[in-house]
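Re: beginner question about structure tokens

> Can someone show what the tokenized structure looks like for a real chain? I only ever see the sequence side.

Sure, here's an example I had lying around. Input first:
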Amino acid sequence: MEKSDRILEIFYRGIRGENLSVKALADEHGLSPKSISRDLSEIKTFLAEHRELVGNTELVYDYSAKVYRLEFEEFLLSKELIAIVKILLGSRALPKNDLAAIIEKLKTFTTAADQRLIGRLVQKELGHYNEVHHESGRLIDDIWRLTNAICARREITVTYRKMAGDIVSRRLRPASIMFSDYYFYLIAYETPGPEYPKYFRIDRITKMTEHRDTFEPGLRPEFDEGALREKIHLMFPGELMKITFEYTGPSVDAIKDKLPTARLLSRKGQSAVFEAEVYGDGIKMFLLSQGEWIRVLSPERFVRDMRNTLKNMLKKYE
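And the corresponding structure tokens:
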């Protein structure tokens, strides 16, 4: 092996979090410890002279273990990594093979010992991982294609399978991609069409064509993902409305967590009255999931809607 190749290999092993022992490397490559020490010195020199590329990365000697280690100022900590991996597993949003590959790549950002630890921690959970049903087998590829179309302000035409199974074709001005409740969504404006956005589950896009036509920013209103996320539930579109409701359940904090716009108006004993701004019909599904703990107070049309829904539910049990 050429010297330059050997140095690159040692450097890469350091990036992977391996302990670099001069004696072990010398035995492995059939060289003297002095030769390996010179290789490590060259790595140190490179790191010192190229701070603009590597930041404050250093090759540090551990006197107690008698090994060198690469230390990164912005290194992904193992405790951060396991949190990310657990979120990915809990989302169930990615195909199992894609998720397993991503976890393996993420593990390279931590030490060899912690790679083994994390592997053991997620092995059973990954083995029993059940991804949500995807209409398309190109989810990650489609997310990236749509991301580029959004950045380039390029119009697209999609063939889309609706919830009921109908196949439709839509020409769109893509605005944003969001993840919510197991699925990735494309937020887009129809061309021509109304000036309010529509939501398309990306895995239901069966075909996508990117056009040469681009559009000016004014033809696609500026979209605020943060404002939408705090006011919408289950990505059901609809008009913005202000609701008030009484909650008599055990956890007021759970309501605040689920409804970021919720504002506590009053509280007396077990009863708490909230006001919240929300989009669409998804809020009804959430409120119904709270059972007898919830009573909607306003607006009146939403009260009637909830009452009719509950009556229809009761009929199914008569």
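Each token stands for a local structural state, so reading them left to right follows the chain. The first helix runs from residue 3 to 15.
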